[in-house]
Amino acid sequence: MFSRKKDDARGKRTKIDTLIGQNSELRGDVVFSGGLHVDGVIQGNVYAEGDSGSTLSVSERGLIEGEVRVPNIVLNGSVKGDVHAAEHIELAKMARVTGNVYYKLIEMARGAEVNGNLVHRASGAEQELLPSPAEKEAAQEEEVNT
Known about the structure:
Blueprint: E1 5-7, E2 13-15, E3 18-20, E4 25-27, E5 30-32, E6 35-38, E7 41-43, E8 46-48, E9 55-58, E10 63-65, E11 68-75, E12 78-80, E13 83-91, E14 96-98, E15 101-108, E16 113-115, E17 118-120, H1 133-145
Parallel strand pairs: 3-6, 4-7, 5-8, 6-9, 7-10, 8-11, 9-11, 10-12, 11-13, 12-14, 13-15, 14-16, 15-17
Antiparallel strand pairs: 1-2
């Protein structure tokens, strides 16, 4: 949708597919693939679809109030909830996390703040994956049918 590209912490180009603008507030869960950039507020959980290799970036003006489960995260704003980065997380100098951070690889700049635990996940360890919305719906239907 947007052709804006940005270098991630490893120098790899990432495409921003979705932008939540500075004056926007979204209430509810967000499920995405590709690149999501947040300048506004999300009141809900943020999930990347499956093993998508997706990237979430949150600017210094961005705020997420809910759980985050994304393979790659570049955080310079605030998250109030647990953060699960299956691959890589970069906490820039304005990053503020109120909750636990689960990571495989972490970069943390001076000034970044985590009010919770930092929990390393070994590369061979099973990652806690959330079911996709379709899988959730199928499981709910199965419960109703039994």
